[in-house]
């Protein structure tokens, strides 16, 4: 009898140990996190338009109904076509005609070798933005050389182009992510915002609180203050964490909208090669901030073409 | 239905008889992870391995019966459970896509399953130890509810069947625990595979309520080991 009593105690202790070990918070994604409530969103938005924006409309656009929109778009829109008379100018720029927009946003998309995804992305995003009544322009920055993909440097180049065009707000966007809710307004909040916090590929769960990859919105003034992103990250990984540590070094906090609004659909794709030096680069992120970024951007611009749906900047890094 | 335990000797007639018990108990802990590792190479190989394992089980059931109690099948059950648990907790959780509540529910269901099967085995062993016919091959008077279990080589009352996968008889006293354990095991497996598949594959929301896996085409593209990914993510959190 004593033997079986001892066995029971051992089993009980093992069970409790297992529960304790696997309750460590670092092992889990988060389904709930601190976010801006829906009724507070308009208060937290930063309203600024391009200095040279001219609009013939009489009234300002009202965004209350857009924020409270409960609809979800289907990713199948990528297979459709744009409406006739869409009014999108060359270079992928659109200004709503029926009212004066309060927000100007440049959407910057680093790209290489995914032509079919790009086509679907453009059709979807232009359809998506029609419902948001913002002034926007889509920049596609393509890396034409054969070195590993350097997402951060391409974003820096796009941001520089957006700053030249006078945009006060930029959205750094991955080409394989589609926003599912029109209430997810593509405008800048007062603090940098992590927009893609609820991606279908990650079970609509935020893997860790300091995640800053996918889609982010940041004011150009703030982006210049942190000297943009680091240009050294060739290959997949860690350039978004580098940007996060730069923002923390300048005492910026990031914000998010709620999980229902921030839903995104990610296209499946083959896994890229991981960058070799990414952990070393990340550990010295703050020290390199001043010397490595927008201020040290050296590249060869192959061409800039104003396509009907986007501004195409081809670069050799 | 009578279902006797087979030893490896029955399946591989040329094995030596030495160290029979030790090898039988440890073999599944080596064979099963190895088979599962091979199965991760590609979708075709996964299907082939699963069919091979299924056919092996059917083969086991059709072999002629022997009387010896073998720990191989119980070891197979244990190694399956341990492998699935480790794969879930280390690899699936390492992708940081499961919430704390979901893992807690999974661990709770698993604990209930283990408890019920432990009670079932404990009662069966207790019946064997204190049965009235311990040590005798046959009872002089066979009543309608007494059976002779060939595997345990003992006579037990009210035997339903002998389960080789749990290496014990399922009797009337422990049948409730057997059923409860099966139901909990089914719930645990369903929940665990839902969490695992929605993590690895592209999920979609079914009628706004539950996540179901949809597109598993990129499940075989992973090159990096999940351990490396976990370490990197923990570093980022810090």
From TrEMBL, chain A:
Subcellular location as annotated: Membrane
GO cellular component: Golgi apparatus; membrane
Principal location listed in the UniProt entry: membrane
UniProt keyword annotation of Iron-sulfur present: no
GO BP annotations, alphabetical order: carbohydrate metabolic process; glycosphingolipid biosynthetic process
Pathway assigned in UniProt: Protein modification; protein glycosylation
Highest taxon above the source species: Eukaryota
InterPro entries in alphabetical order: Galactosyl_T, Galactosyl_T_C, Galactosyl_T_N, Nucleotide-diphossugar_trans
Domain Galactosyltransferase C-terminal: 193-270
Protein EC: 2.4.1.-
Record field: transmembrane: 9-28
Membrane topology summary: Single-pass type II membrane protein
Galactosyltransferase N-terminal domain span: 86-189
GO molecular function: galactosyltransferase activity; metal ion binding; N-acetyl-beta-glucosaminyl-derivative 4-beta-N-acetylgalactosaminyltransferase activity
Keyword annotations of the record: Glycoprotein, Glycosyltransferase, Manganese, Membrane, Metal-binding, Signal-anchor, Transferase, Transmembrane, Transmembrane helix
Entry keyword annotation includes Glycosyltransferase: yes
Cofactor names: Mn(2+)
Family to which this protein belongs: Belongs to the glycosyltransferase 7 family.
UniProt function note: Catalyzes the transfer of galactose onto proteins or lipids.
Protein name (database record): Beta-1,4-N-acetylgalactosaminyltransferase
Annotated organism of origin: Bombyx mori
Automatic annotation (TrEMBL), chain B:
Superkingdom of origin organism: Eukaryota
Transmembrane stretches, start-end: 45-61, 73-95, 101-118
Keyword list, A-Z: Membrane, Transmembrane, Transmembrane helix
Keyword check for Transmembrane: yes
Protein name: Palmitoyltransferase
């Amino acid at each position: 009898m004593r033997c079986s009593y001892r066995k029971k105690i051992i089993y009980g202790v093992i069970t409790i140990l297992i529960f304790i070990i696997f309750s460590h918070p670092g092992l889990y994604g988060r389904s709930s996190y601190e976010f801006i409530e829906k009724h507070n969103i308009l208060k937290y938005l930063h309203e600024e338009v391009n200095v040279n924006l001219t609009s013939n409309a009489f009234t300002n656009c009202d965004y209350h109904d857009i924020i409270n929109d409960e609809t979800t778009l289907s990713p199948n829109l990528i297979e459709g076509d744009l409406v006739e008379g869409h009014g999108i100018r060359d270079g992928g720029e659109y200004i709503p005609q029926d009212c004066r927009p309060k927000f100007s946003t440049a959407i910057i998309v680093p790209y290489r070798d995914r032509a079919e995804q790009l086509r679907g992305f453009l059709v979807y995003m232009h359809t998506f933005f029609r419902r948001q009544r913002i002034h926007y322009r889509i920049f596609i920055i393509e890396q034409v050389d054969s070195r590993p993909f350097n997402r951060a440097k391409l974003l820096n180049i796009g941001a520089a182009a957006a700053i030249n065009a006078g945009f006060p707000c930029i959205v750094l966007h991955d080409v394989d992510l589609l926003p599912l809710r029109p209430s997810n307004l593509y405008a800048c909040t007062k603090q940098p915002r992590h927009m893609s916090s609820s991606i279908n590929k990650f079970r609509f769960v935020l893997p860790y609180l300091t995640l800053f990859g996918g889609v982010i919105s940041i004011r150009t003034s703030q982006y210049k203050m942190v000297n943009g992103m680091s240009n050294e990250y060739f290959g997949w990984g860690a350039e978004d964490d580098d940007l996060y540590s730069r923002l923390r070094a300048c005492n910026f906090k990031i914000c998010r909208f709620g999980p229902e609004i921030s839903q995104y659909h990610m296209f499946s794709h083959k896994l890229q090669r991981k960058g070799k030096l990414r952990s070393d680069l990340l550990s010295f992120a703050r020290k390199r901030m001043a010397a490595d970024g927008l201020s040290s951007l050296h590249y060869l611009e192959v061409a800039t073409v104003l396509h009907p749906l986007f501004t195409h900047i081809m670069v050799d890094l | 239905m009578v279902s006797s335990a087979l030893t490896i000797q029955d399946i591989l007639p040329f094995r030596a008889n030495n160290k029979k018990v030790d090898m039988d108990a440890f073999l599944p802990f080596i064979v099963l992870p190895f088979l599962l590792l091979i199965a991760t190479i590609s979708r075709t190989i996964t299907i082939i391995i699963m069919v091979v394992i299924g056919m092996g089980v059917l083969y086991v059931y059709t072999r002629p019966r022997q009387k010896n109690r073998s720990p191989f099948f119980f070891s197979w059950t244990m190694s399956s459970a341990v492998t699935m648990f480790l794969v879930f907790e280390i690899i699936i959780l390492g992708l940081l896509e499961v919430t704390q509540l979901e893992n807690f529910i999974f661990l709770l269901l698993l604990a209930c399953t283990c408890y019920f099967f432990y009670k079932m085995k404990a009662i069966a062993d207790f019946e064997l130890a204190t049965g009235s016919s311990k040590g005798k091959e046959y009872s002089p008077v066979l009543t309608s509810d007494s059976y002779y279990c060939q595997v345990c080589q003992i006579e037990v009352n009210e035997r339903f069947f002998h389960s080789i996968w749990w290496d014990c008889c399922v009797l009337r006293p422990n049948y409730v625990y057997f059923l409860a354990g099966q139901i909990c095991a089914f719930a645990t497996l369903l929940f665990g595979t839902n969490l695992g598949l929605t993590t690895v594959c592209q999920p979609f929301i079914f009628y706004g309520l539950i996540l179901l896996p949809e597109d598993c085409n990129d499940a075989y593209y992973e090159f990096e080991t999940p351990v490396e990914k976990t370490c990197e993510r923990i570093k980022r959190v810090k």
